[in-house]
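Provenance and format

Records in this collection were gathered into a single text stream. Each protein contributes a sequence line and a token line. The two records reproduced below are adjacent in the stream.
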Amino acid sequence: MKAHIDSGNMVGGFILPKTLVDKLALASQPITVGRARTVSNEVEIQEARLCDTIKIGSLRATVDN
């Protein structure tokens, strides 16, 4: 999938769309940790642990236990 690398992201390691998260193996159920607001919308921010490894090119982000 295409990605936007935000080096100034102070919120979390990876922010993924719900449509993608629904297809991933999760180590925990998503929980609501906040809300985000734009000019015309408000959305829930949820957090979950992945069972999968995220790969970006030859780099891998592994799950810490």
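Adjacent record:
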Amino acid sequence: MAELRLAGTVDLGGANAVLASFIPAFNARFAVPPTSSVAAWRPVPASLDLGRVCAFRWRRVVGNDNTIRVEGAVLQLPPGAGSRGHAGRRVEVQLRLDGRLLVAADGRALLAVPAPPEPSRLRGIEVIAPSGPRPARGTDRPGYAPRADHPWNRPGPKAPSRQVLTESLSR
């Protein structure tokens, strides 16, 4: 920023011209030759799945209705072999960098779908399959009020005051 201001540059073309002269001067001043000519990087092992390593991952347990919840989204898993469900099974949900959402268990993919365009919000996934309209917050329980003489509504024994406690301790 300071270099652009000193050059009096206000447009993109001028900024590119300043950058073309700035980079060689910066490298000449601050570049340090390597101490070793051997490359510091190592090749990636063939057994390593970079897609899994570089993915956002969540561990979940499949619910009794064969669904998992991730970041506010409900994902319905298809039935397994012999039309068996996956209830109680531990799975790993992966949001891969190639744009796929993958649900895997025991090294096998159970579900692979395209991820939403904005990966930070999984709520827009097409495979969300709620079982019906969602009730309003707080209406999922009947909420019966207890009777007036219910033990919750009765006044309990009063806690002793601090003065009484200190008097009994001082004796």
